[in-house]
Design brief:
The chain has 2 domains: 37 residues; 184 residues, SGNH hydrolase (Rossmann fold). 51% of the residues lie in helices and 7% in strands. The radius of gyration is 25 Å and the shape is globular. The longest helix has 23 residues. The protein is of the alpha/beta class. The protein has a 5-stranded parallel sheet with strand order 2-1-3-4-5. The protein contains 13 helices and 5 strands.
Length: 306
């Protein structure tokens, strides 16, 4: 009788252990993956699409604590087009394709880092409004602590992203020792496709600024004003900038009206503006500076900042 009871208890005990085996295996695999990340065996990815690339930028700045960040650049793809390394050491580019300045300012304002300078892009991309989903994910009550201490839960270490990045041969951008960088022009600025895109943009902007868009820009400017004030109270210098575009596009009625509106909402008498000399600027598509022009613009920016 006693033997039967003992055997029954052992069977039940083994049954419970077997039922937990999938969970134990899962934890072991996760632990191994995190160890490989800590050991540098698995490299981070930069994302396999636009949304993930933006999320990775936000998470890297949000979770990676550092006390020596000199400059943070925030804005859309226009400012994202300028490599951080072309400006100098300890520079972070939070420019997000399809995004806007409000998102970057919000990340900087609520993160643990306190940079010396924030370079904020100010133009009609403000109409996109801040990315509430991205900002909410950074503050997620469960995932945020996990991502801070266990990087395997971040977007940059998602297995599919890491695998695709390996196949493509992507490498994470690293800081450099110096700032004397030359970027060679490798684009054909006389291509027919480029000219067609520029003419399309000229046509779209050859009208007055719509009233509803003007109201939206004013509304978003009010939000940015509050964000800038908050950063300045923390001792952060905020510099506003409008990244140059193709000259033909910049001279259109709508773009001229937007520029005038931004200057009225953020008057130079109150705000620190970086304005390079009025020159001809070449772009790949009417908006984004070609590499040679990025180098020229970065040089002017470095001279102004440092």
């Amino acid at each position: 009788m006693n033997l039967s009871t003992s055997s029954s208890k052992k069977t039940k005990g083994w049954g419970r252990l077997i039922s937990f085996r999938p969970f134990i295996a899962c934890f072991l695999l996760l632990g191994l993956y995190q160890i490989l990340i800590f050991g540098g065996v698995i490299s981070p990815s930069n994302g396999i699409n636009q949304w993930q690339n933006n999320a990775i930028k936000g998470q890297r700045y949000w979770y990676d604590r550092t006390d020596n960040t000199q400059l943070v650049m925030v804005g859309s793809s226009l400012i994202a087009n300028i490599p951080a390394k072309s400006i100098g050491k300890n520079v972070v580019n939070l420019g997000m394709a399809g995004g806007c300045t409000q998102t970057g300012l919000e990340i900087v304002a609520h993160s643990k880092q306190t940079p010396n300078i924030v370079l904020a892009e100010i133009n009609d991309t403000l109409e996109r409004q801040r990315d509430r989903d991205l900002l909410a994910s950074l503050n997620h009550p469960l995932l945020s602590p996990l991502r801070r201490y266990f990087s395997m839960f971040r977007e940059e270490y998602k297995p599919i992203s890491v695998f695709v990045s390996l196949l493509r041969g992507d490498t994470q951008e690293e800081d450099i020792e110096g700032t004397n960088i030359e970027i060679e022009e490798d684009l054909d600025i006389s291509s027919e496709l480029r000219e067609q895109e520029i003419e399309r943009l000229v046509g779209e902007n050859n009208i007055s600024l719509p009233h509803n868009l003007k109201s939206l820009l004013k509304q978003e400017a009010s939000q940015i004003e509050k964000q800038v004030n908050a950063l300045e109270k923390k001792g952060i210098r905020v510099i506003l900038v409008d990244i140059p575009r193709e000259t033909k596009v910049a001279k259109t009625p709508r773009q001229q009206e937007v520029k005038s509106l931004m200057k009225s909402l953020f008057p130079p008498s109150r705000y620190d503006w970086f304005e390079p000399p009025v020159e001809q600027w070449k772009t790949s598509d009417g908006l984004h500076l070609i590499p040679k022009e990025v180098n020229r613009y970065a040089l002017l920016l470095r001279q102004y900042l440092f």
